[in-house]
Amino acid sequence: MKKILLPTDFSDNSFEAIRYALLVYKDVKCTFYLLHTFNPPVYQTEYLLGSPGQIGLGDVLQETSLLKLEQLKKRLEDQYSNTNHTFIIHTAFNTLLNEITEMTQSENIDMIVMGTTGATGAKEILFGSNTVNVIKKSKCPVIAIPPKFEYEAPIEILFPTDFEISYPKKEMEPLLLIARQHKSRINVLHVRKTIELNIVQKENKKQLDRLLVNMAIFHSVADNEIIPAVNQFQEKNKINLLVMVQNKHSFIEKLFIEPVIKKIGFHITIPFLVIPQK
């Protein structure tokens, strides 16, 4: 039984993310946690000081949140009826990041699936701040779904790597599960800095090769920046899911520096799975 956390702000993008999770895991027994967090916009001042105008506001917001979650749950059960799936609703007076962190630990969550933008939907932002914070801080894998994404099965998966890190089976299981369920092909893209791999890289490549046996094709690209290489590969090949491993030396860190994004133009129009390194 997989436990999947589905944060929602009731926006279209968050619904697209939920729909993606239900379809990707349609043949997997799952418990889905529908999570909404709330707080009064002025709670840091008047609310905490007990302003008469704020008394009871938290209760009203909680009731509204629960009502919307119940409606969302019913809609999902009606539209995507699946005996493999059960839903639990959860609302909290908390920040989204804090509640996700707490729930990931308390409920032993296996995966988080969320939209990239949220209700504001600012087009110039690659990832909304909530998504950035969750990806950077989470010890649980995260799939981020771009806005207006029409569901497509993850048949072709792109996995860029520099072979600088090891690939334990337990950490890679989220990718392996999806690939097995959808009979996916995993395109391992190595953007090489030098012609020859060093000893560590060779060992890591062997480990990955054994792990992805009969699932992967290995590609090697001449010296290039990783993000342009990913963009170019996506332009030439139909890819349904982008997967990266997050670590403190990872090029993923670059994705969250806004000037870098604008300079290199990283295009994410497909779901993006980030696997944390333990």
UniProtKB/TrEMBL annotation:
One Pfam family it belongs to: Usp
UspA domain: which residues? 1-146
Question: Which domain of life does the UniProt lineage start with?
Answer: Bacteria
Q: Which SUPFAM superfamilies match?
A: Adenine nucleotide alpha hydrolases-like
Query: Matching InterPro entries, A to Z?
Result: Rossmann-like_a/b/a_fold, Universal_stress_UspA, UspA
Q: Which family does it belong to?
A: Belongs to the universal stress protein A family.
Which PANTHER family is this protein grouped with?
A: STRESS RESPONSE PROTEIN NHAX (PTHR46268), UNIVERSAL STRESS PROTEIN UP12 (PTHR46268:SF6)
Name listed for the protein in its UniProt record: Nucleotide-binding universal stress protein, UspA family
Phylogenetic classification of the source organism: Bacteria, Pseudomonadati, Bacteroidota, Flavobacteriia, Flavobacteriales
